[in-house]
Amino acid sequence: MKITHHLSDKLLMAYSAGTLPEAFNLVVATHISMCDECRARLAEFDAVGGALIEATETTTTMGSDALAATLARIKAGGPTERAVPAPRAGVLPQPLHDYVGGDVESVAWRSVGGGVKQAILRTSEHASARLLFIPGGAAVPDHGHRGTELTLVLQGAFADEHDRFGPGDIEIANEDLHHQPVAEPGVDCICLAATDAPLKFRAFLPRLAQPFLQI
Amino acid sequence: MFDALPQTDTARHRRDSVETLGVTGQVRCGVQGQTAVKNADGGKWAALVKRVADRQDADAFSEVFDHFAPRVKAFLMKSGADATLAEECAQDVMVTVWRKAAQFDPARASVATWVFTIARNRRIDMLRRDRRPEPEELTWGPEAEPDQLDALVLQQESARLTAAIAELPDKQRVMIERAYYGDLSHSEIAEETGLPLGTIKSRIRLALERLRHNLS
């Protein structure tokens, strides 16, 4: 898989700091599962966090019995953990698999017209996440954005006036982008999308449909 | 903060490790004495965590505890916890350090970095912040171990990053601290972080390639 569109430093830093809304965390974790380049970049942002911990002023002290208390808790049990690599063969990387409760065949799709289907994933209210199914060759309604919208391709590909996005590629869109993505002919396109604001459609009909789409 | 011994001790250790591996010239000492000490320290913490993982060594653990527990507590307090809650959560973090010691991968993180990720996750629970799903795990498994030189160089590069961040202009360093203490939302984080990044990433990429090779 040749990934050409990656996460921004901004998103990686916020994911490392643990300050993104859940829906964005899910997109970032899923992209990193597919992209070693961003996995390594994340490790670097984690190293920045490590550097801050290392450089923290050391006037703060632990209570006098803290070590003994901690050792007692360790002794009292709780498992030591060994890492188990989880082999996976499917379209959905592990973090997304966990949210769906299975692979693509477990997704509870709802038709939104034109052959396009979506499934909203349960996340915190700070942002929303959904899976999109766009038949090969079909268009997603022309829309602009408020806030930030992340779209990660899991299968197939889509292109808009500006660029092409294949498996593993992530599109980061903001207010400035108005686009009409079209799925490439051939294999159906499946994407994970997250936004921290409702999308605004430019055409009249999709605007009416917006309450039903819940986006 | 540093013991009296490590500088000579670990300087020798570093030379040994490099000679053992038959590689010279790839591992450079820090330019300044300070950096050299910190570099040496990086390897020290990784070795201590390995003792905890391999032998449940309580002495090794208490050294790690003395260094990191107060730092984690300070980090949690700067993130908004009061002293009592931060103390309790710092203990939780250290319990996790013990239990997950075998998962620590010195080719991909320094101990400080690894402790940070555990503290970050504890903070998310503590402050009831948004859930943060983790990427798919990539681990060495029972048959393969991280490359020693990868690990050594990574520990040193992490120490250099720590030194470089300490030398950033105050204004920039404060922005980065605020981002990591949870004071900034993602939209408030600067587009250009200005951080001296790149070297660690290349090193980790190598480790990941070895790991992928091992997994396939």
Task: Write up this protein.
With 215 residues, chain A is of the alpha+beta class. Chain A contains six helices and eleven strands. In chain A, the strands form three sheets. Chain A has a six-stranded antiparallel β-sheet with strand order 1-2-3-10-5-8, with helices on one face. A three-stranded antiparallel β-sheet of chain A has the order 7-6-9, with no helix packed on it. Chain A has a two-stranded antiparallel ribbon with strand order 4-11. By secondary structure, chain B is an all-alpha fold. Chain B has a single domain, classed as Orthogonal Bundle (Rna Polymerase Sigma Factor, Chain: A). Chain B starts with 5 loop residues before the first helix and ends with a helix. At the A-B interface, helix 1, helix 2, helix 3, helix 4 and helix 5 of A face helix 3, helix 4, helix 5, helix 6 and helix 7 of B.
Order of secondary-structure elements of chain B: HHHHHHHH
Give the overall form of chain B.
globular
Structural domain tally of chain A: 1
Helicity range of chain A: 25-40%
C-alpha Rg of chain B (nearest Å): 18 Å
Task: Offer a concise description of the structure.
Chain A is α+β, with helices and mostly antiparallel strands. Helices cover 32% and strands 20% of the residues of chain A.
Q: What are its keywords?
A:
heterodimer, A: 215 residues, alpha+beta, Jelly Rolls, 3-stranded antiparallel β-sheet, 6 helices, 32% helix, B: 216 residues, mainly alpha, Rna Polymerase Sigma Factor, Chain: A, 64% helix, globular, disordered N terminus
